[in-house]
Amino acid sequence: MQVATEVLYVNSEASIVTARETVKKIAESVGFDVYDQYRIATAVSELAENAVKYADGGTMEFHPIERGLEIICKDSGRDMMQKNTGHGLGIGLKSIEHLMDEMIITTDAHGTRILTRKWLK
Hints:
Largest sheet: 5 strands, antiparallel
Organism: Candidatus Argoarchaeum ethanivorans
CATH topology: Heat Shock Protein 90
Strand order of the largest sheet: 1-2-3-5-4
CATH architecture: 2-Layer Sandwich
Pfam family, one: HATPase_c_2
InterPro entries: HATPase_C_sf (IPR036890), HATPase_dom (IPR003594)
Protein name: Histidine kinase/HSP90-like ATPase domain-containing protein
């Protein structure tokens, strides 16, 4: 069964919950066990919360890929990566890095893009 890509806009607490619930269903459809579904959903919560808190919102893309799931978070406002604020964003990114198998962060004049991947075991 092929699972479709989902794209969501996150800009509120309610949209963070929606992103978490959506990715959990996708992860289950891809074939992740309950433990990894929880890890993926937690990482998405962190990403979405960072986008809302530090960048006035952004998009979350959930791409089922061969043997896994790719998640891309793009900001749509202030730079999500500004760590000088003293608000502890770095801790959230470390937890995402721990929960997922891969994480690539790019920042340019258009904002920040965080790509994460989780592979089926």
